[in-house]
């Protein structure tokens, strides 16, 4: 399916918990989730549907070190201070939070189907 035309709905039983095109997902992950949902959504059972979604959204939990002083993410994991400005590092999520993705992940295990809108 053309990714620009992709849209889907995600359900827990009869309750729609998501409707959209995964615009909340960073582009580097979006193509793969759209391709896999387009191909597999209609033929997977409940367990497979939940596994498919979770495996494509695992990036959402990734954390990294962030320097508030120079507003940069630090890739080295075992340092105490920023390599650029020596500022204090804090752990934070790498990717922007999304209420839509939060809701999908909260419902993992209960999602009953994904409906691809053509």
Explain what you see:
Helix 1 runs antiparallel to helix 2 (46-57). The model has no long low-confidence stretch (mean pLDDT 91). The termini are close together. The protein has helices spanning 27-40, 46-57, 99-106, and strands at residues 8-12, 15-20, 63-67, 72-74, 89-93, 113-116. 29% of the residues lie in helices and 24% in strands. The protein is built from 3 helices and 6 strands. The longest helix has 14 residues, at 27-40.
Radius of gyration, in Å, reads 17 Å
Major sheet: arrangement of strands? 2-1-6
| Number of contiguous helices | 3
Anisotropy-based shape: elongated
Q: What's the total number of strands?
A: 6
Helix content: 25-40%
Low-confidence stretches: none
SS content category: alpha+beta
N-to-C terminal Cα separation, in Å?
Answer: 9 Å
Note the run of SSEs as H and E. EEHHEEEHE
Question: Main sheet, how many strands, which sense, barrel?
Answer: 3 strands, antiparallel
User: What's the overall average pLDDT, rounded?
Assistant: 91
Q: Percent of residues in beta strands?
A: 15-25%
Can I get a quick summary?
By secondary structure, the protein is of the alpha+beta class. Helix content is 29%, strand content 24%. It has a 3-stranded antiparallel beta sheet with strand order 2-1-6, with helices on one face.
Observed structural traits:
118 residues; alpha+beta; three-stranded antiparallel β-sheet; 3 helices; 6 strands
């Amino acid at each position: 399916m053309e990714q620009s035309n992709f849209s889907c709905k995600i359900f827990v039983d009869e309750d729609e918990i998501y409707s959209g095109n995964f615009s909340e997902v960073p582009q580097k992950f979006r193509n793969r989730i759209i391709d896999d949902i387009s191909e597999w959504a209609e033929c997977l059972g409940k367990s497979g549907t939940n596994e498919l979604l979770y495996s494509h959204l695992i990036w959402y939990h990734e954390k990294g070190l962030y320097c508030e002083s120079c507003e940069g993410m630090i890739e080295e994991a075992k340092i105490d201070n920023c390599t650029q400005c020596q500022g204090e590092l804090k752990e934070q999520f790498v990717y922007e939070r999304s209420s839509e993705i939060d809701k999908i992940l909260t419902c993992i295990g209960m999602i009953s189907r994904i409906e691809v809108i053509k």
